[in-house]
Design goal:
The protein has 459 residues and is of the alpha/beta class. It is 30% helix and 19% strand. It is built from 15 helices and 14 strands. The longest helix is centred in the middle third of the chain and has 17 residues, at 191-207. The relative contact order is 0.11.
Length: 459
């Protein structure tokens, strides 16, 4: 289908894009532009109940069509010689009732990638009850023309957007500003990862328009192909979906010949345990011990964005997990670029260890998960960080927990602050060697560790 591109758009009541990056893109040598994409999208039907198959080898056929109009924020290098040839196309998440996406990866901006953030689901435009904070409410002058009739059309809209950014794009207005694109890489987190899983299993075999996929904090359940806009609403879900959430159901098909990368916290590792897949030349699966779906640091960063954009968010509960996944995502972006551009496979990482029936994570004497990727906060801990929730509701489930060690335990482990910092820095350097952190992360991590040292007499 032909896509109409309009823009870059400006104006509106707010005079800027919703949920844009908090980074200084000008300083990073990038430019930010927002476009409208419109056209006709096709929905799909499952063929012969293929979605019931655990192996992910699914088949669909075209269904109804509908017109759409949506928005796309693009970040691209100003200097064409800096561009590495790859565009990361984000499937914006809408679980919080509005567009939510990570547009602050220093790895993407410093390695020369372009980033495109696509509003692709109805809730991103119309919001979810009771708050209704979608684009059309946030700035009706700028976004009033946007419309997606149903999430059933999201898969085809994603295909059309990928073609509009890719090497064979052909539109009078070019969102990539003439840059020579070689690869389009799809990325989605949480609910968006479940939709990308469906795209991989059912749409990519036919369209073959993406060159790689990154699924972050993925629960092992692909979304329906005919969703009828059934989005998880964190404001109305309560605790009723907790058990279902932690039950992986399907594999990711392995016959596409393109890189697929899944990176999970301890929480999604529990959900994916029964659908774990072996690492291959085109598949990587990482699990990070001691982490959870969200962290205190991630929620604090999000709160700053919400304050800037005047969005009503949730209060940050005390005691949630304090090991963010964001630095792991940067490592994944680094490896994915090498994978698609040079054929260099990412390192295989150990998996979190489970036992029992039903399986449970094996934990050490400090309550920390055994196995998996070992970030320095896990290998040299001042607290028990885990995906064990503080209560039964869905928000607590996603936040995990952090229980600080007492002074006696800290003294017995490290003696003094200098010894702790030396061991922490060595663990961070080991994580860099293992390929799960980037060298730029070391100063920030060590500085945070210094601030976290709790024994005042040793400061």
């Amino acid at each position: 289908m032909k896509v109409l591109v309009e823009g870059p758009i400006t104006g509106g009541t707010r005079g800027r894009p919703f949920a844009a990056t908090m980074l200084d893109v000008e300083k990073l040598g990038y430019e930010e532009e927002e476009y409208l994409l419109s056209g006709t999208a096709t929905g799909f039907h499952d063929v012969d109940n293929s979605f019931s198959r655990r192996d992910g080898l699914w088949t669909v056929e075209p269904a109804e069509q509908s017109g759409y109009c949506t928005r796309l924020i693009v970040y691209r290098p100003k200097d064409p010689t800096v561009f590495n040839g790859s565009v990361v196309l984000l499937w914006n998440n809408v679980t919080v009732g509005h567009d939510l996406f990570e547009a602050d990866s220093l790895e993407l901006f410093e390695n020369g990638s372009a980033l495109a953030c696509l509003t692709i689901q109805k809730a991103g435009i119309e919001g979810l009850p009771p708050r209704k904070q979608g684009l059309s409410q946030w700035d009706p002058d700028r976004y009033g023309a946007l419309s997606i009739a149903s999430d059933d059309y999201s898969y085809d809209i994603f295909t059309q957007a990928a073609r509009t950014l890719g090497p064979n794009r052909d539109t009078p207005i070019d969102p990539m500003g003439g840059l020579p694109v070689k690869h389009v890489i799809a990325q989605g987190a949480s609910q968006s990862a479940s939709r990308l899983a469906t795209y991989i299993n059912a749409i990519q075999p036919v369209e073959k328009v993406l060159d790689g996929f990154i699924l972050s904090i993925y629960f092992g359940q692909a979304a329906p192909i005919e969703a009828f806009d059934a989005v998880i609403n964190l404001d109305t879900s309560g605790d009723k979906i907790s058990d279902n959430l932690l039950l992986g159901r399907n594999l990711i098909r392995d016959d596409l010949g393109i890189p697929i990368f899944i990176v999970n916290s301890e929480l999604e590792a529990m959900a994916c345990y029964n659908v774990r897949q072996p690492d291959t030349k085109t598949f990587r699966y990482w699990e990070s011990a001691g982490t959870s779906h969200s962290s205190r640091q991630g929620r604090e960063k999000r709160a700053l964005l919400f304050e800037r954009d005047q969005i009503v968010g949730r209060t940050i509960e005390p005691g949630v997990n304090e090991i963010p996944m964001s630095l792991l995502y940067d490592a994944v972006f680094h490896h994915m670029q090498q994978w698609v551009a040079q054929g260099i496979e990412p390192p295989i990482q150990p998996k979190i260890e489970f036992n029992g029936n039903p399986p449970e994570i094996i934990r050490d004497d400090y309550g920390i998960a055994v196995g998996g990727i070992r970030l320095p906060q896990v290998d040299v801990p001042l607290a028990t960080n885990s995906a064990v929730p503080l209560s039964a509701d869905i928000i607590a489930l996603l936040g995990g927990s952090c229980f600080a060690f007492d002074a006696e335990k800290i003294k017995s482990l490290y003696g003094d602050r200098a010894s702790f910092i030396a061991r922490f820095e060595a663990a961070a350097e080991n994580a860099i060697r293992n390929g799960v952190l980037r060298p730029r992360d070391l100063p920030e991590l060590v500085a945070e560790a210094e601030l976290n040292w709790p024994l005042l007499e040793h400061r």
